[in-house]
Amino acid sequence: MAISTNNIQDSISTNELFREYNWYQNAFSSVLQEASDNFFTENFRIEFIGLSKNINCLLNNEACFVTKIKIDDEHDMFFRLTEKTIDIILEKVLGKSKNKFNINKISELEAKIITAFNGFIFDALKPKMNEPDHTLLKRTNFDMVNMTFILKDIDQNAKSAGKIIVTLPLALLSPERIESSGNTFNDTDFPESEIFVKVIMGQMRFPLYEIKGLEKDDVVVFENSDINKMTLSIQDELIDINLNPNMDLMIPQDDNTEGDNMAARNIWDSIEVEMNAEFDAVKISLADLKNIEDGLVVDLTSLYDNNVTLKVEGKPIASGKLVIVNDRYGVKIDNVIAKGQPSLSGETETEEYEEGEENSQEESFEENQDYSSEEDTTQNSEEGEEEDFDYSDFELEDDNL
After folding, report:
1. What's the pLDDT at 44?
2. Residues of the chain with pLDDT under 50
């Protein structure tokens, strides 16, 4: 039984129905199936699928044929057969009709068949109910329970199914509840159990030109990272974890940096994008997870042999190994995943454009080829593969500078 909100799940009536569900299924399923077999000569299969005190959530605005049968002066039973259910029954009993069945245009013969079937079910179900106690107060609209059954043709080729909803007065029922016999599992059963988690090393904004220039063996340092902390992601819930850093990962910092070549950048290169680094999913025991929640330091040595992926906008651009530079975490690039190369701008682009019309046509043809390749990649990503980061989204024509 699907529960959509905590308010419903925590309600008294819902908790009662959870414990009583098994009794209703055992008490009424076989009775309804036997009644159908006797009335229609084993032409349908009936399955119990739902129990509720709210009739609206079961019908979903479906048109129904309703039969009300009086039990006594104070109690009634209701049978609701959806339009699809009646269509399945009548097609089996009377043969396939030329016109689509419309419950609003049901014939007198068709109505008599359905009403007779409901009366037959009533006679079969009545022994399952208690005798009315007339000393009790008259029922209200809220002391009814609705059982939902699915009716299907026994023909294996028939795929259609319809609903039968039987509404009974609770005052005439004595449902049995499943009572807890104590803890099924011991607390000692769980500590060694494992769960997959993601470990997020850090997140930072990087200029696009630095990301476009990534090459193998480059080291990307996350300045806002902390070698004593990382973030654990468990089913989208983030938990800060404390670590004992492995100092064997430390590498010397290289202060020899090449000067920036501003002429080789276009206007988009100065844009900063959010880049994060996360490990491949790893397993952690529930015992370790409990320690994390208690704020204790956890040794996650297994992470140091794990692959780290750099992502921009959730798309992988590179992968590598975890390193430590001074007191910050970094990633030493092993593989550049992102497609596309740093584009040329300024004088270089102008010179290539002025080489001639023929070269321009060749470049145009190559661009078309690249575009087709991008379409193929997009299609592949839609089929389940993770889409790579595309630098072409940030390109700008010279005329727009």
Report:
1. 95
2. 1-10, 141, 256-263, 340-385, 400-401
Structure tokens at 76: 């009634």
Q: Do 111 and 64 form a contact (C-beta atoms < 8 A)? A: no
Q: Dig out the tokens for 170 from the structure.
A: 């609770």
Domain that holds residue 272: 198-254+262-365
241 backbone dihedrals φ, ψ, rounded to 5°: -120, 145
Backbone φ, ψ for residue 148 (5° rounding) = -110, 130
Tokens of 157: 């080729």
CB atoms near residue 315 (< 10 Å): 15
Residue 153 shares a structural domain with residue 26: yes
Asked if 16 and 8 count as a contact pair (C-beta separation under 8 A), the reply is: no
Residues 44 and 124 reside in one and the same domain: yes
The CA distance from 108 to 208, in Å, is 75
Q: What is the DSSP annotation of 128-180?
A: GSPPP-TTSPPP-TTSEEEEEEEEEES-TT---EEEEEEEEEGGG-----PPP
